[in-house]
């Protein structure tokens, strides 16, 4: 036994399977500390554990952290403990081996007794040495059965960003409109990537997101965190009752596009229009996948499909910029009285107006066109798409000379 400041630090204990399961049922074992992962073992893995017990082979040691008298946090061994309980509760059917297809209730009495009395070694941790940081570091080091994915590893990082990610992953749009499995924290992974990109990072590599988690200055009041939550709420309102729409890449790209636009535009009363536009462009993308079009939009849609699931920085930027143009096209309102239309707005008007000058009716390349206020800015005209028209340079200059 190790001792630190006179208090026990580590101690091997031996428990029969029946006692471990009873401790779990009675609430003395906590399987869900913040850093833990969900149930990730498959039936084959669970059956293999029971087969190990039946053959009287060693089961890897469990690790418990004593949180209080008789109360333990399971640091390592959640999958094994869960398997024992599932089997004793007749929720697990054995897959393979001598007892293939049987539940615990189906086994001979002597075999049931062998399982109930099987001894498992538990390393109990207690004392001042085992603060939260040390325990969570141990958790990461002990995982070698089913490897942790990046989202599961990030749950073991202390800091303020974890609860923020949890909150964002639970928003209505994530729960009701995203085809992202909740298993193994897929929604948390999407929320973490949204925050990471919103902070100006160019890519979503696991190591880079981990560094974002470790930043001490991120909290609920951070401008980008607030913008991310506003963006998800805009989508929640727009897609209310519309069912599943978003894949993982699209919720990340569209949300980060809205975060950028919130610095310049208001989405008041435009949430449904944004949802309509996004659904319409997705329908066109799917149609274009079946029958590719040679038009400019068709080529953009082909590129969007090609870039959809890529984590390359240039593909991430392309997706975000693409959705910015789609969203701007619905006529979201600028929050300040700018005189000049943005490049995104110019592109939106260009495609809306069929690439033709509103004055002479001729078609021009984008760089040969200028965005003009239908009602002049000097007379109170707004700088928004509802008051925008595209003119070729000669027509716009001529209009200015006669105004």
Highlighted features:
403 residues; alpha+beta; DNA Binding (I), subunit A; six-stranded mixed sheet; two-stranded antiparallel sheet; 17 helices; elongated; disordered N terminus
Structure explained in plain terms:
The chain has helices spanning 17-25, 43-54, 78-88, 109-117, 132-142, 150-154, 161-169, 172-177, 186-198, 206-213, 223-238, 248-261, 271-290, 296-307, 313-328, 343-352, 393-402; strands spanning 2-4, 7-16, 29-30, 62-68, 71-76, 119-125, 265-266, 333-334, 369-373, 388-392. It has a six-stranded mixed sheet with strand order 1-2-6-4-5-3. Strands 7-8 form a two-stranded antiparallel ribbon. The protein is α+β, with helices and mostly antiparallel strands and 403 residues long. The chain folds into three domains: 2-145, no CATH class; 161-328, no CATH class; 341-402, DNA Binding (I), subunit A, CATH 1.10.30. It is elongated.
């Amino acid at each position: 036994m190790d001792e630190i400041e006179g208090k026990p630090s580590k101690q091997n204990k031996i428990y029969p399977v029946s006692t471990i399961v009873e401790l779990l049922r009675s609430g003395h074992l906590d399987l869900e500390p913040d850093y833990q992962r969900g149930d990730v073992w498959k039936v084959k893995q669970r059956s293999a554990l029971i087969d190990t017990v039946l053959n009287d082979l060693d089961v890897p040691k469990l690790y418990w952290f004593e949180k209080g008298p008789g109360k333990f946090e399971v640091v390592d061994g959640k999958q094994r403990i869960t398997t024992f309980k599932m089997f004793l509760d007749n929720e697990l059917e054995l897959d393979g081996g001598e007892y293939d297809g049987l539940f615990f209730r189906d086994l001979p009495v002597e075999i049931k007794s062998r399982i109930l009395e099987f001894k498992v070694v538990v390393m109990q941790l207690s004392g001042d040495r085992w603060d939260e940081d040390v325990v969570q570091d141990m958790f990461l080091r002990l995982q070698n059965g089913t490897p942790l994915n990046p989202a599961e590893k990030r749950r073991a990082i202390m800091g303020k960003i974890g609860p923020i990610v949890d909150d964002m992953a639970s928003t209505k749009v994530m729960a009701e409109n995203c085809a992202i499995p909740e298993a193994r924290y897929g929604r948390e992974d999407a929320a973490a990537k949204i925050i990471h990109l919103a902070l100006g990072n160019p890519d979503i590599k696991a190591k880079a997101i981990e560094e974002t988690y470790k930043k001490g200055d991120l909290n609920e009041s951070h401008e980008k965190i607030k913008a991310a939550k506003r963006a998800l709420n805009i989508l929640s309102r727009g897609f209310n009752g519309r069912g599943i729409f978003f894949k993982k890449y699209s919720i990340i790209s569209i949300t980060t596009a809205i975060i950028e636009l919130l610095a310049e535009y208001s989405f008041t009363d435009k949430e449904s229009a944004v949802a309509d536009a996004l659904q319409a462009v997705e329908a066109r993308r799917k149609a274009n996948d079946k029958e590719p079009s040679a038009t400019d939009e068709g080529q953009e849609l082909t590129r969007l499909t090609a870039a959809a699931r890529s984590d390359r920085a240039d593909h991430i930027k392309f997706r975000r910029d693409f959705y910015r143009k789609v969203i701007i096209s619905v006529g979201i309102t600028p929050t300040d009285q700018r005189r000049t239309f943005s490049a995104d707005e110019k592109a939106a008007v260009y495609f809306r107006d069929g690439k033709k000058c509103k004055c002479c009716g001729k078609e021009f390349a984008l760089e040969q066109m200028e965005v003009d206020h239908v009602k002049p800015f000097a007379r109170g005209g707004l700088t928004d798409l509802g008051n925008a028209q595209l003119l070729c340079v000669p027509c716009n200059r001529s209009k200015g000379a006669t105004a």
